[in-house]
Amino acid sequence: MAAQHFLFIEPGARVRNPACPDWGTGQVQSVIGDRITVNFEDAGKVLVNARVVSLELVDD
Distance between CA 25 and CA 29 in Å, rounded? Predict the structure, then answer.
């Protein structure tokens, strides 16, 4: 189970999925519980289960 660092992810944050680097960076659209909707540059809108996928915050 992924660490609960997703609690610090909020709409507007820039993130990446280290397991899928070809998706590029994405912008968080919404966070509802452990479900995070992210609009990735090269994968489009993806619903991420943060208990399974560890997103990384991207510094601007």
Answer: 13
The CA-based angle 39-43-49, given to 5 degrees, is 65
The 8-class DSSP code of residue 40 comes to E
Residues across the chain: 60
Q: Please give the Cα distance from 48 to 19 (Å, whole number).
A: 12
pLDDT digits (tens, 9 = 90+) for 1-60: 444 555 689 999 999 999 999 999 999 999 999 999 999 999 999 999 999 999 999 986
Instruction: Give the number of other CB atoms < 10 A from CB of residue 15.
Output: 20
Q: Which domains does the chain have, with CATH numbers?
A: 4-57 (2.30.30)
